[in-house]
Design goal:
Blueprint: H1 6-38, H2 40-59, H3 67-79, H4 81-95, H5 105-120
Length: 123
């Protein structure tokens, strides 16, 4: 058995470092999103976005697929926003990892609209 070329060893070390960095970064990113979803100011903004979306859902045409389920969920959200703020905050952070407590209102509104069906159980 011969010697392993030095360049090959260097390449393997570089690949191993890059792989290790990726493995460490993934859970860190998830933990950051978890922390954002727990931020009080962020949750307050999510609650307003939820209520805005709920009002829009109730105003939509009844021919929209799953309208009945969407509208029933909208009623529950409007009547008990505190109950639903946690799940929405976590869901939108999981859906859009670029969200931060300083994200625009439009970004939060769009994320809430994007996860609405999943949380309403219509997906």
């Amino acid at each position: 058995m011969g010697r392993v070329p030095t360049t090959w060893v260097r390449r393997m070390n570089i690949l191993q470092e890059r792989l290790s960095a990726r493995i460490i970064q993934a859970p860190t990113a998830m933990m950051e999103q978890w922390e954002i979803s727990r931020d009080v100011r962020f949750r307050q903004r999510v609650a307003v976005a939820m209520c805005t979306q709920a009002i829009s859902v109730q105003d939509e045409s009844t021919v929209i697929p799953n309208h009945t389920n969407r509208a029933n969920y909208a009623k529950r959200v409007l009547n008990h926003p505190k109950r639903y703020t946690g799940p929405f905050a976590l869901a939108i952070c999981a859906y859009d990892s670029s969200l931060t407590p300083d994200s625009s209102d439009a970004a939060i509104n769009n994320a809430v609209a994007a996860v609405w069906n999943a949380l309403a159980g219509t997906v």
